[in-house]
Write a structure and sequence with these properties.
single chain; 3-stranded antiparallel sheet; Arc Repressor Mutant, subunit A; WH-like_DNA-bd_sf; WH_DNA-bd_sf; about 55% helix; alpha+beta; globular
Length: about 60
């Protein structure tokens, strides 16, 4: 399941390029109950260089 979530997160951020979101906002939009899952996948996306972490706790597509 989490890998599917990762793809959805990346897709959502890519569709909203230039906008920044918190893990909580992303979880709510995607309907993921556990924010921790979204945070873990965001960390992986940052490590892969697809997403960047901006201000405290905010993320956007590169």
């Amino acid at each position: 399941m989490p890998s599917g979530v990762k793809a959805k997160i990346y897709e959502y951020l890519s569709q909203n390029k230039g906008k920044e979101f918190t893990a909580e906002e992303i979880a709510k939009v995607l309907g993921v109950e556990k924010v921790a899952i979204v945070r873990a996948q965001l960390t992986r996306l940052v490590r892969e260089g697809k997403v960047e972490k901006t201000a405290e706790g905010r993320y956007r597509a590169k």
